[in-house]
Amino acid sequence: MPVYKAPLRDMRFVAFEVFQADKLWASNPAFSEIDREVVDAVLEENARFNEEVVMPLNRSGDEEGCRVDGDKVFTPNGFQAAFRQYAEGGWIGLGAETDYGGQGFPKMVTVMTDEILYACNPSFALYPQLGIGAALALSQHASKEVKELYLPKIYSGEWCGTMCLTEPHAGTDLGIIRSRAEPQADGSYLITGTKIFITGGEHDLAGNIVHLVLAKLPDAPAGSKGISLFLVPKFLVDKDGNPGARNAVKVGSIEHKMGIKGSATCVMNFDGAQGWLVGKVNEGLAAMFVMMNYERLSMGMQGLGASEVAYQNAAAYARDRLQGRSARGVQQKDKMADPLLVHPDVRRMLLTVRANNEAARCFAMYVSKALDESRYGMTEEIRRVASDKVALFTPIAKAFLTDRGFDACVMAQQVFGGHGYIREWGMEQFVRDTRIAQIYEGTNGVQAMDLAGRKVVRNQGASVRIYLEEVRALFAELGAGLEVFASGLKHAANVLEEATRVLLEQAAQDVDSTNAAAVDYLHLFGLVAYAHMWSMMARVALAHQDDDLFYRNKLQLGHYFMQRLLPEIDSRLQAIKAGSQTMMAFAEGYF
Amino acid sequence: MPVYKAPLRDMRFVAFEVFQADKLWASNPAFSEIDREVVDAVLEENARFNEEVVMPLNRSGDEEGCRVDGDKVFTPNGFQAAFRQYAEGGWIGLGAETDYGGQGFPKMVTVMTDEILYACNPSFALYPQLGIGAALALSQHASKEVKELYLPKIYSGEWCGTMCLTEPHAGTDLGIIRSRAEPQADGSYLITGTKIFITGGEHDLAGNIVHLVLAKLPDAPAGSKGISLFLVPKFLVDKDGNPGARNAVKVGSIEHKMGIKGSATCVMNFDGAQGWLVGKVNEGLAAMFVMMNYERLSMGMQGLGASEVAYQNAAAYARDRLQGRSARGVQQKDKMADPLLVHPDVRRMLLTVRANNEAARCFAMYVSKALDESRYGMTEEIRRVASDKVALFTPIAKAFLTDRGFDACVMAQQVFGGHGYIREWGMEQFVRDTRIAQIYEGTNGVQAMDLAGRKVVRNQGASVRIYLEEVRALFAELGAGLEVFASGLKHAANVLEEATRVLLEQAAQDVDSTNAAAVDYLHLFGLVAYAHMWSMMARVALAHQDDDLFYRNKLQLGHYFMQRLLPEIDSRLQAIKAGSQTMMAFAEGYF
Fold first, then answer.
1. Is the pLDDT reported for residue A1 higher than 90?
2. Which of A197, A422, A515 sits opposite B256 (nearest CB)?
3. Lower CB count within 10 Å: N or C terminus of chain A?
4. In terms of CA atoms, which chain B residue is nearest residue A328?
């Protein structure tokens, strides 16, 4: 059975030593009640709860899965009780606005609790997380009346939420959805259509489920400009917030999946279900995207959480498992063999995962800081700059952290040899569960296209140039003892600059080039960002290297990243330069 | 439900156009009865049988799995009948010696039927394949009497075989096994011990199961030099080959695994089971390794087979699924959207898989040619040179083809978006099933150490130099129309040469360096070999480019490989140069 301890020391290092979050909070009235002491207590309690209550349900939830019976869906044993406790602990509304019962913690805090939750049990995590996503969209676009009725119930965990986007024929391409919304005399709408892949579409954890549904009005323009967003509760709600009559939305079936088997993934049939418009007519996609930046970072945390728990278990196995002898000669004479850790290749796997994890954690905090500034920044200018930064880095946070997270789970599984393939050890579940994070909330290919197309080519590289200035300002400050970081980061910035130049040049001549380069560009960018994060961490670590081995190890792991993992950017650049011609020259019949 | 058509056109291209196998056979008396016509008929029939009979059991076998009841193990429905037909078709003994009922086909043929079999159903494939492995070891090391008794039964499929190596505490490190062999007065031995991860240890497909078991005599030297190999049949066999009394070897349980669920992976308890020595006392590991070169190439074919079937299904989905519009503008006006194939990133995934597959198929044939020469070569010198080549390339064939095969399955799954995560589509099964190929028969890390340590450093790069001469002789011949290949291959050879030089220099100073570099070196070497294969294929394709689009597409796909996939070697070289110091400096307690 896998073990997990939330990496609180590493989290605090990033939050308080690298980003000095407590100083940021002290200077912003929105966070007047947040300080380091409070956050430390929150982290401790969150870690304890998830390790003790949520984590033990991860394996059993996988083995048991969800079950559908008529129009009811049953979650695995133990999920109900744990969800109650989770809700009562106030964890669902931790980052939500205090006006509606939330606790108002910044993303710089909830990014850490997200990581812990996903590490412990991604299937369980999705139930509260989808509610938070739905609440975010309501919070931005719904009327005050709706917010007062729904948000406190979601934050308290009495009700859950969903996002109903995908249809059998319409996944990434939402412009072609067929779900219909018929306006009624009372201002509501009747929603009809079939939605698939609906996470938590039906389950037994909450008294009501608030569906946010994309559908088209009868006279809507074709394509993505004719999509509206509707609130469709499972049980209709009276003015006092009491659930009443059952709405005409039912689960059709649940999917049999590779992983996250404790999460009910439902086919939902809307058969003239009563719903209410959220936001403006035909602007549903925009309303949905409000929550996307938050959700997509969340998915990144699923990747990091999985990678962290996979690392911890692989490291424990490598310490304990005796197999073979060190190339340096016998290390443990009284044992039949030396521990796996004597073998450099085993260390290579562990350190690769860990070096990525620590960079990812720092990067997630970097993006969270921007998310907080975009929402709570003291000036319009701060909020605008931060919003641009969020826009640039969100696709990287989603796709790069989940791609590397999946690879990490595979690598950690490999440390176990044959035992990694056996279900009882739990390593193969990490692989299966994490695989979905590369797919949902916009596939990682779509994220890459969002980055390369919308965030880089569309503004002619303006956002990248601003970022490069920030990076170059840092490497100018990396002095004695940080040479490996200074030279690596300098090279990384140059490669990103060149890749961006190539991307723009290609785009001017070839409409297919951006999509052809997108995934390589995203991975290149992610690696450069990690080099940036490692340089920031190294600067702090160097200053404290005499205090504690913790800091010297940080420097050492940073070296590992710069020397062994960063060089991938050079190959990625070459792939980008190859252009789209070799791909597009094949006739369709070739494939 | 996944589809599959054996890629016979591509196979014939490699066998007959690139390697001119028919000419090789015509000049070797061992293959006097093999010609192109016969092989064509074999391939057609093999493809038909596997597509129609074996493939349909792949999904159902996964859903159903194996079942243990007392000391009996039941394979999934349909496996028994299919195995009977497979055996009656003569497929098990296709490559086996004719003296004992085999059909005597060269590895250059069975490498193709292996690919087809593994593509259709890897769980099913393991039952006959393990028998072939056991038979190979017997064929080389057992007495004539034993061979006459056992081999015909294995080749006919009446009996199956296993390899019993791993114990709970001893996986890669076989030197510490605890299974004991007590000599008896009649010359036999009583074997006692527990073996785990035994593929096909017990099942309902055959009348007897022939276990090849590693165990230690009471006075054996410690470590791997004290291991002997024993034949332990499930049912004791009389002099006429009739199974009689049940031997004291029983299944303890079957493993619950990530994939290959139709393959019974057993814990086997030997409780004073009667066995017979195979080969010499204390030379059991060497005897076992005889079969390893063949088995390891087989595992590579599992990787390639999975990658091919995954490709075919992803390509079919990308042709059919309508989603989004081409960046060039609407392509299919009468449809609600264009097919996925209009998107360059989808093509990137498909072409990456396909470019690796076609190189892998050529590489497998290249290694098979050497395997045939090492066994049937007309002179001692030919056999020796070929054996060295086999030794050098076997770890690459096993590890590189399975690593890329797994990545390919993941990439092909990604093409399906959310549907790739749903069990019914079958794509996620390819991922789960293929994962084991990176682990068993020696993990890919162990393969890399075998390559870098035993095959390169131990002979100071002599084998690599011979290979580089061969590669350079080729690129000198790559003239007009093949510039991309000539320059790419030249660079590839230089990078391999430099990586080898670095490996040797590091090894002279640092005992940990070879293992630290091993996996990067293996992937670098694999990519160089693929560039070599693509250059060989391109030379043939260029000569025929006016004949058929087939050849022009080959050239085009070769360009894709050289431009987009080969550049990875530059990053790998940088990682190798980083050495082991950054890894080994961490104290064990750090992990």
1. no
2. A422
3. N
4. B511
Hey, are the CB atoms on A323 and B586 less than 8 Å from each other? Answer: no
Nearest CA to B38 among B128, B108, B115? B108
* Tens digit of each residue's pLDDT (9 = 90 or more) over A371-413: 999 999 999 999 999 999 999 999 999 999 999 999 999 999 9
Same CATH fold assignment for domains B8-154 and B314-577? no
Cα–Cα dist A21/A24, whole Å:
5
CATH class of B159-285: mainly beta
Q: Tell me the chain B residues in contact with residue A196 when contact means C-beta distances shorter than 8 Å.
A: 418
Q: Which residues of A touch B353 (CB under 8 A)?
A: none
CB B177 within 8 A of CB B216: yes
Does residue A441 have an active-site annotation? Answer: yes
Angle (CA) A74-A80-A81 rounded to 5° is 155
Q: So what's the pLDDT on residue A491?
A: 98
β-pairing, A189-199 vs A265-278, is antiparallel
Contact list in A for residue B345 (CB cut-off 8 A) is: 445, 448-449, 515-516, 518-519
Among A419, A449, A591, beta carbon nearest to B350: A591
CA A304 to chain centre: 8
Report the run of H or E that residue B210 belongs to, with start and end.
Answer: strand B208-215
Does the pLDDT of residue B489 top 80, yes or no? yes
> Using CA atoms, how far apart are residues A194 and B216, in angstroms rounded to an integer?
64
**What's the pLDDT tens digit per position in A463-477?**
999 999 999 999 889
Q: Which residues of A touch B198 (CB under 8 A)?
A: none
Q: Helix A380-415 to helix A427-435 angle, to the nearest 10 degrees?
A: 140
Kindly list the residues from chain A whose CB atom is less than 8 angstroms away from the CB atom of residue B196: 418
Instruction: Look up the CATH superfamily of B314-577.
Output: Butyryl-CoA Dehydrogenase, subunit A, domain 3 (1.20.140.10)
**CA B154 – CA B161 distance, rounded (Å):** 7
* Residues 181-200 in B contacting A (C-alpha not used; CB under 8 Å): 196-197
* Residue A511 touches partner B, C-beta closer than 8 Å: yes
Give backbone dihedrals phi and psi of A263, rounded to 5 degrees, phi first. -95, 125
Interface test with A, best of B166, B258, B336 (most A CBs within 10 A): B258
> What is the architecture of the domain spanning B8-154?
Orthogonal Bundle (1.10)
Please enumerate in sequence order all residues whose Cβ is within 8 A of that of A589, keeping only pairs 6 or more positions apart, or say none: none
User: Does B293 score more than 80 pLDDT?
Assistant: no
B104: left (phi over 0), alpha (psi -120 to 50) or beta: left
Q: Verify whether the Cβ–Cβ distance A327 to B511 is below 8 Å.
A: yes
Q: What residue in A sits closest to B196 (Cα-Cα)? A: A418
CB atoms within 10 A of CB B36: 16
In order of A68, A265, A411, A470, B409, the CA distances from B421 in angstroms are 19, 11, 20, 39, 12
The Cα–Cα gap between A326 and A340 comes to 9
Contacts of A121 (CB under 8 A, 6+ apart): A50, A54, A55, A57, A58, A61, A262
Q: Which of A115, A167, A308, A441 is catalytic?
A: A441
Q: Cβ–Cβ contacts within 10 Å for residue B320, how many? A: 10
B591–A519 CB contact, under 8 Å = no
Binned at pLDDT 50, 70 and 90, residue A575 comes out as very high
Q: Are A276 and A189 in contact (CB under 8 A)?
A: yes
A441: alpha, beta or left, given left = phi > 0 and alpha = psi -120 to 50? left
Q: CB-based contact (8 Å) between A575 and chain B?
A: yes
- Per CATH, domain A160-283 is 2.40.110.20: yes
Domain ranges of chain B: 8-154, 159-285, 314-577
Question: Is the ipTM value over 0.90, yes or no?
Answer: yes
